[in-house]
Amino acid sequence: VQRVGPTGTFVRKAQFVQLSDGPLALLWERSDAGSTRAVHQQLSLDQGRSWTDPVRVLADMDSSSGRLKWLSHIGDAVTVVGGTGESRLRFAAWASLPDGNDGEGQWSSPKDSQFVFQDPSTGTRVSLGNLRHAHSGDQIIVAGQGSTDVWASQRPTDNWEWVFAPPPDWPALARIAETDRQLSSPAVVADSAGRVHIFWHDRSEAGIPGPALNYARWDGERWSTGAPLLSSGGVADLQPSVTRLDDELYLVSAGSGGEIALRRSFSADAHVGRSWSAPVSLPTPAAVGAVAANPRIVADLAGALHVAYVVPLNQARGVYYCYSCLLYT
Questions:
Q1: pTM value?
Q2: What is the spatial distance between Cα 87 and Cα 126, in angstroms, rounded to a whole number?
């Protein structure tokens, strides 16, 4: 075991990434008392046997950028995205220096993507919030919500020069849903065939969930119109969560009785309500008054599903986690 980096500091979110010019990078956040969460980087040119001294990078992508989506390969670029769930996304990418030695590269300055535009049908101003993104094949997809509608756009990932220069405009946004109800944050996931799936709830002025979970998808060329997909069945949570595992989608939401419900469908059939399985209730605390809420689901590379949720009130309050690779047989 080798210790790298400084001692006596608070560090979090360590992440490895293979940079496009060869070196292995280790990035982590330093969070000393009273300071921002500053991102630091160390490089190894010998497969981890030695490391450079820590250097602060992505200075504009620390705690000021909201929730940081750690590094991922999008197209041929190593990228980082900040601001997920907010009204702007911030993109940065790694580039090798043309005449540099191994490991000599740099991160671009973060480039903001905000979506404020005029609705072509009504002429009213729309400012999207709760932005989410996913990438699928050669496209990066962004979805967000207006006051009473959901919009989405996409752009190709084969050229990241716009990150290092003033970015061009995104293509015209497509309105995929419109309602007079308040909307939840959209849950977005891309499947292996290049389709992108978006799920959301709406609710009345009294905060009561709408009668159905709504759905729209991108087929690689165009968006479908948002439409009801599944009966809410008394679902109280207005932020569904979805993940992909091989050719299937797994969707979780919280019920009014405090249960966490999990459904699945083949991704190709996800637009058909009857293709979704009957809900499976996940384990929740047995304490009286323990109402689970705000579930989140991810799938790992080993084929396991991980679900976390909160119990915000009463004696059982806290964060809960369950894990299974065999929730369905």
A1: 0.57
A2: 12
